[in-house]
Amino acid sequence: MELYVAFVEPQFTGNIGFMARTMANFDLENLILVNPPPLDEDVFRFAKHAGYIVRNAKIMRDFNELREFLDYAVATSGVDTSSPKKFKRISITPREFASKISSLGGKVGIIFGRENYGLFNEEIERCDLLVRIPTSERYPIMNVTHAAAVIFYELYISSIDRVERPVAEGFELDLLNKRFSEILSMINFPEHKRKNTEVMFRRIMGRAMLTKWEYHSMMGVLRRIQYALQGKNYMDEST
């Protein structure tokens, strides 16, 4: 697994330095900066001995480029919901996330948003998972680098005796989501409900963290459904 930390449109260069320093505290090195401000001396002053992380950071134009680069995208937010109907904002804790990430492969990105707003709803929709740190209802929003430290800590302590298993890659999950969308079209699923249903399916598959075997099994099931809807006999062919 290649683990990346992405900071989307940071406003203050000092926070970029703090993010790099926090990453170094927990043996993380791969930083992605999405549309950052010009990197000035404050970045390296606040990074302290983690300046190498900033110097080696990948710079990307926008969220689209980031999402295309990652196989598995993990959004972070200080806002979630307990309503099952608002599934786009249903989150897991950093500890739950740490227990799941231990088996992932490919390019995995933990994405932090803007200091004043976080990630936009449409950006969160395009991610496979949402992580939120449980905090006081009176003051739920944490400083972005403080939140990063909590998440990185949970990942660090879970890395002991980590065992990786082959999991579905980003392009495979895209194929799975595409096939599900095709089935929705075939059954004339209501258009006004379709987008939310597709996001819900993406999230379910994201939380499941399918192994390669599970992915191929799921693709086979969806293929059988398509053949049945078309009135054809199913043939055991490559998915």
- Tell me the major beta sheet: 6 strands, parallel
In N-to-C order, the SSE pattern is EHEHHEHEHEHEHHHH
CATH topology of the largest domain: Alpha/beta knot
- The rounded Rg comes to 19 Å
Helical stretch tally: 10
Low-confidence stretches: none
Annotated CATH architecture of the largest domain: 3-Layer(aba) Sandwich
Beta-strand level of the residues, as a percent range?
5-15%
**How far do the termini sit from each other?**
25 Å
Number of extended strands = 6
The CATH homologous superfamily name of the largest domain equals SPOUT methyltransferase, trefoil knot domain
- Report helical residue fraction: 40-55%
Mean pLDDT across all amino acids: 89
Shape: elongated
* Spatial strand sequence of the major β-sheet: 3-2-1-5-4-6
| Class from helix and strand fractions | alpha/beta
Structural domain tally: 2
- Give the C-level CATH assignment of the largest domain: Alpha Beta
Describe the structure.
The protein has 10 helices and 6 strands. It has helices at 13-25, 41-47, 51-55, 63-69, 94-101, 121-125, 144-158, 170-186, 191-208, 212-230, and strands spanning 2-8, 31-34, 58-60, 72-76, 107-112, 129-131. The protein has a 6-stranded parallel beta sheet with strand order 3-2-1-5-4-6, with helices on both faces. The longest helix is centred in the last third of the chain and has 19 residues, at 212-230.
What are the salient characteristics of this protein?
2 domains, alpha/beta, Alpha/beta knot, 6-stranded parallel sheet, 239 residues
